C-alpha cells in the first residue's frame, strides 16, 4: 500500500508530465491564435479591432486579458505580427502589450513597426524587444526563450495588396512545429522556395480559401504536407456553403469559426 507522500508524488508527477506534453492552439478571432506547448506561449495576430466589422474580433475583455497578461494569456513569450492590416493588427494595443509584459518579445514587419512609431507615444519604451527584417526572400530565424521562430515574406492575396509586407511564421517548440500562413496568395512558388514540405509540420493554419478548391488543397497537401490543417479568416455570418466546400475539398480540415475554440496538435 502506498503512503500518502508516495501517492502525492505520483499525482504531482502525472500532472507535471501531462503539462509538459499538453499542446493546443486557441482561436482568438480572424487569424489570431494562441499556441501553447511545454509551458511556452506564442500569440499571432492576437490584438486587433477589425474596422470593416466583417471578421471575428477579440472583445474588450479578451483584449484586456491579453494586454494585461492575465491567465491564460500570462507569461507569453512571443507576439508575432503577420502584417499591418486592421483585421490583424492594432498598433496601440500591441505596444501596450509589450509595456505590460516586460519579458515578451515581438516580430513584426517594417510597416507594422512604422505604424506603432506613428500611433503610440510609448513605442520607444518597447522598441528594443521588437525584431523586424528587410522585405527580402527566404527564411529569417529568431530564437526567443528556446522557441525557434522562422519568418518569411510572401505575397499578400489579392492584386490590390501587392505592396503589403506579409510574413508567414513557422514556430518550433520542442519537437512540435506550427505553421501560420497569414494572408498568403495561393502560389506554389512561395511554398516550394521555402521547402516547407521537408519541415514535417505538425499543424498548418491557412486561410480558408486554400481549402475550397483543388489548386489550394494541392498546395496544402503536396507543398506543405502538415499532419493537421486548420482553416481561418472566415467572415462572420459566412454562408454554410463555404464550410461545405471546405469539407468537400479537404475533408480532414478543421475550421476556426468560434473564438475560444481549441485544437490539440
List the helices and strands and how they pair.
Blueprint lengths: L3 H18 L1 E7 L2 E6 L2 E5 L15 H9 L9 E3 L10 H10 L4 E3 L2 H10 L3 H4 L3 E2 L8 E5 L2 E8 L11 E8 L2 E5 L7 H6 L9 E5 L6 H11 L3 E5 L7 H10 L4 E2 L6 E3 L1
Parallel strand pairs: 3-4, 4-5, 5-6, 10-11, 11-12, 12-13
Antiparallel strand pairs: 1-2, 1-14, 2-3, 7-8, 8-9, 9-10
Helix pairs in contact: 2-3, 3-4
Overview of the structural elements:
The chain is globular and about 50 Å long. The model is unreliable at about 5-20 (pLDDT under 50). It has helices at about 5-20, 60-70, 90-100, 110-120, 125, 190-195, 215-225, 240-250, and strands spanning about 25-30, 30-35, 40-45, 80, 105, 130, 140-145, 145-155, 165-175, 175-180, 205, 230, 255, 260-265. The chain has a seven-stranded mixed sheet. It starts with a helix and ends with a strand. It contains eight helices and 14 strands. The protein is α/β, with parallel strands linked by helices. β10 (about 175-180), α6 and β11 form a beta-alpha-beta unit.
Amino acid at each position: 500500500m502506498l503512503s500518502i507522500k508516495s501517492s502525492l508524488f505520483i499525482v504531482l508527477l502525472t500532472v507535471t508530465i501531462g503539462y509538459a506534453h499538453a499542446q493546443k492552439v486557441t482561436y482568438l478571432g480572424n487569424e489570431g491564435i494562441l499556441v501553447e506547448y511545454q509551458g511556452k506561449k506564442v500569440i499571432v495576430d492576437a490584438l486587433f479591432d477589425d474596422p470593416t466589422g466583417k471578421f471575428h474580433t477579440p472583445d474588450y475583455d479578451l483584449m484586456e486579458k491579453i494586454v494585461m497578461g492575465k491567465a491564460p494569456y500570462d507569461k507569453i513569450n512571443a507576439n508575432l505580427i503577420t502584417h499591418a492590416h486592421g483585421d490583424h493588427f492594432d498598433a496601440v494595443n500591441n505596444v501596450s502589450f509589450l509595456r505590460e509584459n516586460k519579458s515578451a518579445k515581438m516580430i513584426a514587419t517594417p510597416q507594422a513597426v512604422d505604424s506603432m512609431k506613428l500611433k503610440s507615444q510609448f513605442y520607444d519604451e518597447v522598441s528594443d524587444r521588437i525584431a523586424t527584417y528587410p522585405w527580402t526572400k527566404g527564411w529569417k530565424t529568431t530564437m526567443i526563450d528556446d522557441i525557434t521562430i522562422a519568418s518569411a515574406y510572401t505575397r499578400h492575396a489579392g492584386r490590390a495588396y501587392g505592396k503589403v509586407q506579409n510574413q508567414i511564421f513557422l514556430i518550433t517548440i520542442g519537437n512540435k512545429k506550427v505553421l501560420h500562413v497569414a494572408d498568403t496568395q495561393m502560389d506554389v512558388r512561395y511554398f516550394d522556395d521555402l521547402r516547407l514540405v521537408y519541415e514535417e509540420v505538425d499543424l498548418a493554419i491557412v486561410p480558408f480559401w486554400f481549402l475550397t478548391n483543388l489548386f489550394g488543397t494541392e498546395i496544402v497537401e503536396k507543398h506543405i504536407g502538415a499532419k493537421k490543417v486548420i482553416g481561418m479568416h472566415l467572415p462572420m455570418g459566412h454562408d454554410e456553403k463555404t464550410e461545405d466546400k471546405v469539407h468537400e475539398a479537404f475533408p480532414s480540415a478543421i475550421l476556426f469559426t468560434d473564438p475560444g475554440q481549441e485544437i490539440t496538435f
